[in-house]
Amino acid sequence: MLITTILVSLIMLTVWKKSVWVVALFLPVGLVELLYLSSQMTKFTKGRFVPILLAFFLTIFMGIWHYVQMERCMFELKNKVSTEYVNKLVNNPKINRIPGIGLLYSELVQGIPPIFSHFIANIPSIHSVLVFVCIKTIPIAYVTLQDRFLFQQVMPREHRIFRCIVRLGYRDVLEDHVAFESQLVHQLKEFIRLESFMLEAEGTGEQALTVENETYMAITINATDEDAIVEYRAPSDSTQEPEVTGEIEFIEEQREHGVIYMLGEAEIVASPRASIFNKVVVNYAYNFLRKNFLEGDRSMPIPPNRLLKVGMVYEI
Fold first, then answer.
1. What is the tens place of the pLDDT at every residue in 209-228?
2. Same domain, 232 and 267
3. How far apart are CA 277 and CA 281, in angstroms?
4. Whole-angstrom Cα distance, residue 217 to residue 232?
5. What are phi and psi of 59, to 5 degrees?
6. Are residues 289 and 311 in the same domain?
7. Domain assignment of residue 90, given as a range
8. Among positive and negative, which fits the CA dihedral 239, 241, 244, 250?
């Protein structure tokens, strides 16, 4: 109970951004719970040690889980796939580009996950449009649709490979896969259009300005420090380049061919050079927790006929 009060106070300060005086209202509750804990300690040898013992074991379980997950994250960061490797794969004549959009899910925020190279080694095919998707929960209640998807293109552009971070609030719930696909493809097309607009602005000496979630172009005519004439206009579909229109139509065409979800499942084992303590924690304690405790439900239901799972062993 005391731990719950402390955690709620931290959430109110860091996430809900409440005033310190509002959080101070929980101080009497914390004092009562502290008195209750001290009363339990007076009868520690008469059976009151059971709650403390349970809390001790729960702390150990959470510590083991957190430690292995952090080691897994470090392994993915050290072994992430380079952009040069992706370019070699795309240019390799033995690698087929199949129609459709492929969504490869990973927990890696920065870079391309190492499971991608393992996937290509077993299935030498890449979808015509490939998106590396990472779903992350951020400490706010809701994230608007305009701010939910963050895209980055893996160069060069003609390969049509993207990275996407899907940001969700802790009270956001992903809809069914059809709505998610529509939102992702729509935001991807907007990203392509806006990126082309920004590149054109950089090439012509123009500047971009964002006002109230709307992107405008700043065109400077007779630019001097004193009498610069600036006109702002929003980019429209009617003024976009034919290449951009072709890219957007290509994305929509590939969506009609189908969207395939690829999930990477990593089996974590201790490295042969690891210490005995690390082997016990990873190979026995962590695997016991992973096999006997239910994992969280999937963020979004995915049709089984459109799901492809790829397994890989991580040695940490």
1. 443 444 433 333 333 443 44
2. no
3. 6
4. 5
5. -65, -40
6. yes
7. 82-174+259-316
8. positive
